[in-house]
């Protein structure tokens, strides 16, 4: 049997903008998807045991099937000829926005490589997971699979001409507590990404100005993170949320959780991932603040994840 894992992630700056070549900052979190692959049986059977938002697995099933076929093709294996059982688990919940699809793709790619006795470097696993991500996100930037493969805190810039993307590891003094709050709405990342693309074409002046602001913000945020100026990082997250609202990827439930986190003293809060539902992230240094923000959300019936950014290993 082959085994593999992939990190969950939170995008701290510039989801969506990153699809169009603006730099983004992503951090792996201390939860992961695990996969086991065993050649046997008829066709390709998937047993998904991940704890998820209600309906997540059902809504993503067709995309998941396509993603597995894409990975097999990338490995030069004919999906029509191979039979295997894939088991998915791990402690990363199936929430939208925390890279559940990318983490599971990386886990499955590693488990397949293990089962088929292929010794693949992480760079290759990352490429295979990127192929899989196309099934979930249409034209993914590659930021999710990169974080799921390598872990840690990463500066990512997509190369729009098809060359290698810029992937730089950032380091911060110590891991910092965050709260990820889930609206409970299963979002369709593919539709959200396509929507931004359409509006960008329709309103070039407005969107170009917003994209320019997002680009400048990324550089300022990188500096603030490296200097460990967490107050500033939080303010910039708030600013990033405003830009995301302007490109119409937030929703009232996300705005509600973002405001609630700020009221409870979070240094900053924003949506994370594809938006339109899914999750938000709040910067809550120290356990007490993290607990206050997380509890306030739980008291209103939302599911949360208490985790940290800047963790290098699971
Ligand atoms: O919702 P998630 O966790 O799949 O994140 C999507 C991030 C986007 O920037 C919206 C798309 C991408 O491929 O970068």
Termini separation comes to 22 Å
The structural domain count equals 2
* Named CATH topology of the largest domain: Ribosomal Protein S5, domain 2
How much strand?
15-25%
Summarize the topology.
Blueprint: E1 2-13, E2 24-39, E3 44-48, H1 56-74, E4 84-90, H2 100-115, H3 122-137, H4 143-150, E5 153-157, E6 166-170, E7 176-182, H5 189-202, H6 204-226, H7 230-246, H8 252-263, E8 268-272, E9 279-283, H9 287-299, E10 303-309
Parallel strand pairs: 3-4
Antiparallel strand pairs: 1-2, 2-4, 2-5, 5-6, 7-9, 7-10, 8-9
Helix pairs in contact: 1-2, 1-3, 2-3, 2-4, 3-4, 5-6, 6-7, 8-9
The structure holds (3R)-3-hydroxy-3-methyl-5-(phosphonooxy)pentanoic acid (PMV).
Folded structure, characterized:
There is one protein chain. The chain is an alpha+beta fold. The protein is built from nine helices and ten strands. It folds into two domains: 169 residues, Ribosomal Protein S5, domain 2 (2-Layer Sandwich), CATH 3.30.230; 134 residues, GHMP kinase, C-terminal domain (Alpha-Beta Plaits, 2-Layer Sandwich), CATH 3.30.70. Strands 1, 2, 3, 4, 5 and 6 form a six-stranded mixed sheet that branches. A four-stranded antiparallel sheet has the order 8-9-7-10. A hairpin with an 8-residue loop joins strand 5 and strand 6. The two termini are 22 Å apart. The site of (3R)-3-hydroxy-3-methyl-5-(phosphonooxy)pentanoic acid has 20 residues, from helix 4 and helix 5.
Defining traits:
single chain; 314 residues; alpha+beta; Ribosomal Protein S5, domain 2; Alpha-Beta Plaits; 2 domains; six-stranded mixed sheet; four-stranded antiparallel sheet; 9 helices; 10 strands; binds (3R)-3-hydroxy-3-methyl-5-(phosphonooxy)pentanoic acid
